[in-house]
Recover the amino acids of this structure.
């Protein structure tokens, strides 16, 4: 099974899109929305979309594993964003022109400061030694997850740097349809991107854990393959999201043979997300996490998972730890 592409930048829609002057279904306070037309994106066709691998788009926050100070480290997504004044100019241009293209940024003055440890994402264009914003006015990038930084406490809960492992949800190697939560060496995840999901991420659309006992895991991008994907055709995709159990997902990400990634989000089709009874929660899961530190606190997530090591559950939402 080939390793699928990592997510370093915003993924384009599989269809050409247009901006409509109506409130966004995806972002509060955004008075316009981007919707798909029925025309397949030429870039997707050029990359062989009809032969691409279709995978479930997971709703969390993007992470990346690479070295920091010579050791494998989990990095959190931190896009460098415009200042309020620059963003106001950008949105005004976007409204008047109905497009983001052609807007001119002053990277030295228009963007907020980021930590010294910040790095730009792969394939971010550079001009005169400065990274160039994407069409959304962001400069995608990463910061290393520091276990003492409360801003990234939920990222920190899924890694143990002393042992060098991470908590990962993936498909079982031997049983199709079965998921497993395992502790994976960070060294085995190098240069991969993953999605952090759980109790305190993006409104918890999968209903994981509880306030008293949060549950978070990393999901490698591309690992949840769609077994019977619909053809890349507007009406068939719309019907699949509406009518199929497997379509109760946030979206689809296609991984093309040339490394190109393209996606469709339910919001592109005017459909609601999140939905109850997500497809992820129809799949059984088993826990395979050994104890890493006998002296860890009771709140340590690795310790909690090790207490149910070997146990099967009907779905990830059913995983609850003892009080």
């Amino acid at each position: 099974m080939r390793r699928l592409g990592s997510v370093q930048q915003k993924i384009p829609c599989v269809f050409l899109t247009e901006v409509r002057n109506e409130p966004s279904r995806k972002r509060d306070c955004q008075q316009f929305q981007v919707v798909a037309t029925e025309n397949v994106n030429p870039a997707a066709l050029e990359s062989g979309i009809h032969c691409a691998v279709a995978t479930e788009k997971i709703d969390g926050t993007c992470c990346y594993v690479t070295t920091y100070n010579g050791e494998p480290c989990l990095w959190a997504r931190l896009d460098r964003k415009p200042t309020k004044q620059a963003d106001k100019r950008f949105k005004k241009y976007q409204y008047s022109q109905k497009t983001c293209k052609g807007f001119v940024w002053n990277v030295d003055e228009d963007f907020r400061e980021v930590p010294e440890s910040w790095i730009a994402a792969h394939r971010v264009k550079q001009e005169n030694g400065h990274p160039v914003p994407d069409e959304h006015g962001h400069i995608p990038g990463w910061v290393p997850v520091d276990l003492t930084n409360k801003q990234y406490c939920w990222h920190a809960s899924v890694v143990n740097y002393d042992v060098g492992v991470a908590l990962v949800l993936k498909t079982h190697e031997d049983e199709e349809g079965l998921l497993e939560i395992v502790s994976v060496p960070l060294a085995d995840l190098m240069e991969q991107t993953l999605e952090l999901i759980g109790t305190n991420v993006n409104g918890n659309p999968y209903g994981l854990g509880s306030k008293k006992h949060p549950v978070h895991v990393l999901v490698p991008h591309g690992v949840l393959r769609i077994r019977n994907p619909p053809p890349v055709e507007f009406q068939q995709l719309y019907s699949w999201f509406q009518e199929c159990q497997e379509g109760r997902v946030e979206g689809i990400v296609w991984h093309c043979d040339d490394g190109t990634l393209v996606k469709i989000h339910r919001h592109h089709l005017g459909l609601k997300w999140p939905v109850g009874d997500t497809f992820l929660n129809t799949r059984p899961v088993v826990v395979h996490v050994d104890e890493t530190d006998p002296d860890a606190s009771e709140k340590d997530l690795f310790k909690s998972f090790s207490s149910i090591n070997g146990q099967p559950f009907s779905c990830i939402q059913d995983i609850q730890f003892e009080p």
